[in-house]
Amino acid sequence: METPEALTSAAYIKHHLTHLVIGFNDHGLAFAHDAAEAAKMGFWAIHIDTIIFSLLTGGIFSYYFYNIAKSATAGVPSRSQALLEMLVLFIQDNLRNSACERNVVIAGLSLATFVWIFMMNLMDLIPVDLLPWIASWLGIHYLRVVPTADPNGTFGMALLVFVLIIYYSIKYKGLGGFWAELAFQPFGKYLMPANLLLEGVSLIAKPVSLALRLFGNLYAGEMIFILIAYTYSGGLLPGFIAGILQFLWAVFHILIVILQAYIFMVLTSVYMDAAHREHH
Description:
mainly alpha; 3 strands; globular; three-stranded antiparallel beta sheet; disordered N terminus
């Protein structure tokens, strides 16, 4: 990895926005050594860093929650148990009076969604040069550490929610009921084409809005961290001023990190609630 001083502003930003990619080139399966080579790999190029950090953050909170549940007590709870109980009550409050309130799968999905996305978003607070610099010592030229700043990651989660929407819609309304909901609302059966167009667009917009909202906010946050880092490493600002800017943006970004995890969780529960309700 070149030092920041050796890179122009455009090259520095481009370097930090390039993923660690593996895919197929003329010689078979291989890692991409630059952004142009990654682009040539096409649709089946895999962002290894997004997968690694998604699994890492998911594994950390799963292991942490498992240990809390295993040592849970009915007496005075530990701090960890109290935190988990607060999260569970928080999820229950959000699902209260919804059609999917008693579905333990949706409750678990909401909890996992909020905590997992929060932890992935939290990776944005790690100094932007730190992990790529460590990776460069291992011969890894590119590394992005925020899975939610990658549209592949956010669309992957949104598509899972979309599959669950379809599944529960058919499970609770039947195939005929689900079709009727798409074809006969809101204008009645005589305007079926218009209904299918409106309801189809509305259905498809759900995963798209989930994915793009999360990606857009975290990508913008990551970009600002990169720009502030370059003002120092490129010699544009003194270190203490760049440090103050980083600190102020990090404090503000914590709100974004929490808010985006909450919005994704709430919208998921709203979509699941609609899938559980039968419309007449």
